[in-house]
């Protein structure tokens, strides 16, 4: 790693916050017959990336996948535009597990109100019986800010970014 690749943690955290503020939707990755399946979804983050909330229909394929296997990833990316290098777009990939957030859970109402503040057009869907709030508990994050600028964090210390290291399992 060169000095050019390394940034102060505060700068990495600021870039992460800018990315998630500018991208209101992401790609939910579930498992379908053992293979990744992507769905475009609006998301709401908790205090940091280690917890995310989705409002999903039980009729959707991705919901059926989550009911069969709760392992999940959420991929959030900077929008592409002419003139940008698509390979250098900023992006975040978080992995964890998902569960339905019960209506009687202590945080349900506050999550619902935050979700509606961010996505007011989904108010009607909260009245539909087939929709539910899902809570995604994420364990790991992979943040790419550009070429040679890949960082990882864990849920144990979600705001502490470390320069990417090769995966020992590969």
TrEMBL record:
Q: Which domain of life is it from?
A: Bacteria
**Domain Pyridoxamine 5'-phosphate oxidase N-terminal spans what residues?**
13-142
Q: Sorted alphabetically, which SUPFAM superfamilies does this protein's record hold? A: FMN-binding split barrel (SSF50475)
PANTHER family recorded: CELLULAR REPRESSOR OF E1A-STIMULATED GENES, ISOFORM A, CREG1 PROTEIN
Q: What is this protein called?
A: Pyridoxamine 5'-phosphate oxidase N-terminal domain-containing protein
């Amino acid at each position: 790693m060169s000095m050019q690749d390394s940034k102060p943690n505060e700068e990495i955290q600021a870039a992460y916050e800018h990315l998630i503020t500018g991208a209101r939707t992401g790609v939910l990755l579930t498992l379908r017959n053992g293979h990744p399946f992507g769905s475009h979804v609006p998301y709401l983050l908790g205090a940091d990336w280690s917890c995310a909330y989705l409002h999903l229909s039980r009729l959707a394929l991705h919901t059926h996948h989550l009911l069969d296997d709760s392992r999940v990833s959420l991929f959030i990316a900077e929008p592409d535009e002419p003139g940008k290098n698509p390979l250098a777009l900023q992006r975040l990939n978080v992995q964890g597990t998902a569960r339905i957030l019960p209506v009687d859970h202590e945080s349900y109402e506050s999550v619902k109100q935050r979700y509606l503040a961010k996505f007011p057009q989904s108010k009607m869907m909260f009245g539909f019986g087939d929709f539910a709030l899902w809570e995604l508990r994420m364990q790991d994050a992979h943040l790419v800010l550009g070429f040679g600028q890949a960082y990882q964090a864990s849920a144990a210390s979600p705001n502490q970014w470390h320069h990417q290291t090769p995966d020992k399992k590969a």
